[in-house]
Amino acid sequence: MDVDNGGTPLTIPNTDGTGRPNYIDTDSEDDNIPDFEEGFYEAGPTNYQTSYINRVTAYNAANAATSNTLYPTGDTSPADGTPDYLNDSDGDGIPNLLDPQSAYFLDDDGDGLINLFDPNQNGDFYGNVNGVPDRDDDGTPNILDGSDVPLPLDFIAFSGTVQNENVNLKWTTANEVNVSHFDVLHSTGGSKDFKVIGSVQAVNIKELVNNYQFTHQNAPDGYNFYRIREVDLDGYEGFTEIINVVMEASNISWTIYPNPTQDHLSIRSTVIIPDSRVMILDVTGRTIYDQHVSFESKEAVLDLSKLGAGVYHVIIELPDSKKSFRVMKK
Hints:
Layout: H1 35-38, H2 48-62, E1 154-163, E2 166-174, E3 179-187, E4 195-201, E5 209-216, E6 222-232, E7 237-239, E8 243-247, E9 254-257, E10 264-269, E11 273-281, E12 287-295, E13 299-303, E14 310-318, E15 321-329
Antiparallel strand pairs: 1-2, 2-5, 3-4, 3-6, 6-7, 6-8, 9-10, 10-13, 11-12, 11-14, 14-15
């Protein structure tokens, strides 16, 4: 409104209070979900691109017989299964069709509204979206409603302890909002190949510090890696750090070969070990090699080519065990 002529000034929305108003803020809620994603969840929370593709298909069909510019639907740069107009060619975090610097930014009538969202260009009005998330169910979608911004869930602690043949996992959270459940993820391959071994329903009370636990029955020998995946009611996910729990490290079997050796010594473990300390001592007890060695592939190779001929002791040290081998160098 024009305040110079008796009007009332309008408040410019700035949901996240960062100093950049919503209309020029690509993440107006500061929830790490770009507005151009969050505003188009017709095809589900993790598939906003399908909504754009459906709109472009409808727009091109509606304008096939008009003079309006159509959206090119090629997938060439790169050929990654995503139409070029949805890629981010200049890496600025904005897909090409929404980026004024891109050739895919189509605004034939120059009104600042791209053809896809411009009813005057046979586009589909931006606000005409089905299935938009609305956390507080007040009729205003998240993307337009500052009160819908969830406080982040806080993982306060996450630990695992061995009890007999089992691993007991415990985690503590605070500030739970809109949380559905927690998935317990397990791997014996370090940070790779996590699989869900169980789920725990969330308490979902923001005002409480919530304690959870899960028992991994008959956990395998060796190194076990765990993390917790928090799943929101609307599909968003969050993760804890990865922790490592060692089951019966003293029962890990080792193979060292060739022995005697001329230049290289291979050490093989029966389990994946992300980090160990390997030392080589000569017959006088002098340490001539002391390094952290990973057995991510269950095997490591040491270069002994610079050592003189003789007898050496190879010591493998783990958090709760130690193994020593006698090696002959030719």
